[in-house]
Amino acid sequence: DLIRHPVNTLKRARRKMLLAQDPARLATFTLSGGIRFTCKLGSSTGRILTQGDIEATERAFFRERLKAGDVFFDICANLGLFTLTAAQRVGPSGRVFAFEPSAREAALLERNIAQNGFTNVTIVRGALSDREGEARFAVATDGGTNSLAKTTPPEQIIEKWDTVPVTTLDAFVERHGIARVDM
């Protein structure tokens, strides 16, 4: 591997070393398609990315099915892995709505969108649910386990509970005059 892909192997080795030293450090990875993605090295996403790619099958599905001009909803966008993939694919004539209730994750989501130069993404600070109103939202140490509920994985360590706005998909689409949702 070192002979065939020396630069990538050295980058992975450096990131593993940094992860061991400072898991809270932000690192920027280049994903397939040239997308730049920043996350904490010690997050579940960061740990996976130090080993290689992440959610490659799902992102390939989006790239295969989405076309220029499509409208994409990323529900629980987190740091924007699918948001970025969709934004690149639907292009300037398309729209991406990224729902993220956590302020911490939304800040990195915004950074990831900006560093890729996407202007076709709208961040929606809230969650989709089966009703409109407010809900309790578990903010976990690893944003990948944030949730509208306490879940069973042992890696969900809840730091705090926030109250976040919730709406339904139908109400959001109607309120914003969205003619169609492609994915």
What labels describe this entry?
183 residues; alpha/beta; 24% strand; three-stranded mixed beta sheet
Describe the structure.
The protein is α/β, with parallel strands linked by helices and 183 residues long. The protein is 34% helix and 24% strand. The protein has six helices and eight strands. The chain has a three-stranded parallel sheet with strand order 3-4-5, covered by helices on one side. Strands 6-8-7 form a three-stranded mixed sheet. The protein has a two-stranded antiparallel sheet with strand order 1-2. Helix 3 packs parallel to helix 4 (81-90). It is globular and about 50 Å long. The termini are far apart.
Low-confidence stretches: 1-6
Major sheet strand order: 3-4-5
Number of separate helices: 6
Largest sheet: 3 strands, parallel
Residue-averaged pLDDT, rounded?
89
> What is the overall shape?
globular
Question: Could you write a compact summary of the structure shown?
Answer:
This protein has 183 residues and is of the alpha/beta class. It is built from six helices and eight strands, in the order αββααβαβαββββα.
